[in-house]
Write a structure and sequence with these properties.
Layout (H helix, E strand, L loop, with lengths): L5 H17 L4 H17 L6 H20 L5 H36 L14 H16 L8 H9 L1 H4 L7 H9 L8 H34 L6 H32 L17 H7 L2 H15 L6 H19 L3 H23 L5 H20 L3 H11 L5 E4 L3 H4 L7 E4 L1 H5 L5 H14 L3 H6 L5 H15 L13
Parallel strand pairs: 1-2
Helix pairs in contact: 1-2, 2-6, 3-4, 3-5, 3-6, 4-5, 6-8, 9-10, 9-21, 10-15, 10-16, 10-19, 12-13, 13-14, 14-15, 15-16
């Protein structure tokens, strides 16, 4: 079930809230009801994947309980169980998400005829696999413990973050579920949650939906792209994924807040970043934190020698790229960030400070160019957009400029009607500067939620969300559902 669907907004979410607070006096019943609701949410439209989620929950709960129950002198057994539990999660993730990728590449390399797996990728498998791996590691470190299956299932399957995050830790959420006061209806949390959900819905349906049209036309359309159209295409995707993912995050945090659950901030104005490290502190914060705590630091982190630290950074970002998608373009996208992180670390050792505007300009354009590989279905699509961005396909200028610039007589420059230059995406040149202004100078939704008051400004955003809900003529998945 999608957040941006009428079934979710007008039936499922209100029903789940009623069940949760109706049975709030009986913790077991309220928890069980929410677990059942979350499984229904997950299986809506694709019930075949429900047993997979159930099996994952049972497996990780059992391993985690055994690991925490073993005494310290059985360290080897504890570590072996942890390794087996992590391996089981990775095998599950590898089979469903990466099997076809590896088989396809083996067929190409060795001219074999292995068959690829049929069927769709289970939604959210990357998220609930990483979430439960973190739980197992925390059990091993004795910073998490759960002896009740319903409580564990409630944490592992809570529908606001089940499909696309944030990747939450057990210690962040489960204590909130167990606090008796959290089960009391809180009208401020209910209204603030609705406010945040409305902002997210407007971002997804109205803003990201519009940028999606222009990005798809450029990436998926035929023929080479001229300079202006290529930049409009790349920037459209840059803002599509921004408003799509931040919109999802707002809706997830807003829905959880209605249940009196505060999820960790997962998105904090990433396009204000002044370097790639700052970007990853702001973009998909929970994923960056997972990779830092469960990959980078165990590899040695910053404590290692300089060469090893560079290697660790590259490994982390290659894992990040592969986690996002089973394809070489995703891996290369991760490699680009790894290389940028290595260069940044080296620069900080030998270089001086950089003016903030220049630092922002370089970072933003790097992120924009890297998104091209993230979005492109094939290498050819990525090169098509990038070649246009670098002017390799020539410059098409509006014919209204021919009077002033007609003296320029070079084959690479031609004067055409603006509509033909933009191929029906003329409005992008109004929306893109506006999006830049909003991303840089407006308060983000986290700040807006903290300052929430029941006034006309809040009513405006709730009305904007209602407008978006009433104009959902087609239901598009959030981009991170694919990862």
């Amino acid at each position: 079930m999608l957040f941006n669907s009428h079934e979710y907004l007008f039936l499922f979410l209100p029903g789940a809230l009623i069940l949760w607070f109706l049975f709030r006096r009986w913790g077991f019943l309220s928890g069980l009801g929410l677990v059942i609701a979350s499984f229904f949410f997950y299986g809506y439209g694709k019930i075949a994947h429900v047993p997979l989620l159930m099996g994952s929950v049972l497996l990780n709960f059992s391993v985690g309980r055994i690991v925490t129950g073993l005494p310290g002198h059985q360290e080897r057994k504890r570590k072996a169980l942890l390794t087996a539990g992590i391996a089981a999660n990775l095998v599950l993730l590898g089979y469903f998400k990466y099997f076809n990728f590896f088989v396809t590449n083996l067929n190409v390399l060795f001219n074999t005829g292995m068959e690829v797996r049929q069927g769709t990728l289970p939604l959210g498998i990357s998220f609930f696999s990483f979430t439960q791996i973190a739980f197992l590691v925390d059990c091993y470190r004795r910073s998490a413990q759960e002896d009740h299956l319903i409580s564990y299932g409630l944490w592992a399957t809570f529908f606001p973050y089940l499909l696309s995050g944030p990747i939450v830790r057990y210690s962040e959420v489960m204590p909130q579920f167990k606090e008796r006061v959290k089960k009391a209806l809180n009208y401020r949390n209910l209204s603030a949650g609705l406010y945040l959900l409305s902002i997210g819905l407007f971002k997804k349906v109205v803003i990201a939906g519009r940028f999606s049209e222009w990005a798809s036309a450029g990436f998926d359309g035929p023929g080479p792209l001229n300079f202006f159209y290529a930049w409009a295409t790349s920037l459209s995707y840059t803002f599509q994924i921004y408003f799509d993912f931040s919109g999802y995050t707002d809706m997830a945090l807003g829905a959880a807040l209605m249940f009196n659950i505060r999820l960790p901030v997962n998105f904090n104005s990433p396009y204000k970043a002044l370097d790639v490290q700052d970007f990853w502190r702001r973009w998909h914060i929970s994923l960056g934190r997972f990779l830092r705590d469960y990959v980078y630091i165990p590899l040695g982190g910053n404590r290692a020698k300089e060469g090893r630290a560079y290697f660790n950074l590259m490994v982390v970002f290659l894992v990040c790229g592969l986690w996002h998608g089973a394809g070489w373009t995703f891996i290369f996208w991760g490699f680009l960030y790894g290389a940028a992180a290595v260069i940044l670390r080296f620069w900080r050792k030998i270089g001086g400070p950089m003016p903030d505007f220049l630092a922002w300009f370089l970072t933003f354009n790097f992120v924009n160019a890297a998104w091209v590989f993230f979005r492109a279905r094939t290498w050819e699509d990525a090169l098509k957009v990038l070649s246009g961005m670098f002017g390799l396909n020539g410059f098409s200028l509006p014919d209204s400029w021919s009077g002033a610039l007609g003296f320029i007589q070079v084959p690479q420059i031609q004067f055409l009607p603006w509509k033909e230059i933009m191929r029906g995406s003329r409005d992008a040149y109004v929306w893109i500067p506006l999006a830049v202004f909003v991303c840089l100078y407006f308060k983000n939704s986290n700040q807006m939620a903290e300052e929430f008051k029941a006034d006309w400004k809040s009513l405006f955003w709730i009305a904007a969300g209602a407008y978006a809900a009433l104009h959902m003529y087609k239901v598009d998945e959030f981009l991170y559902f694919n990862f």
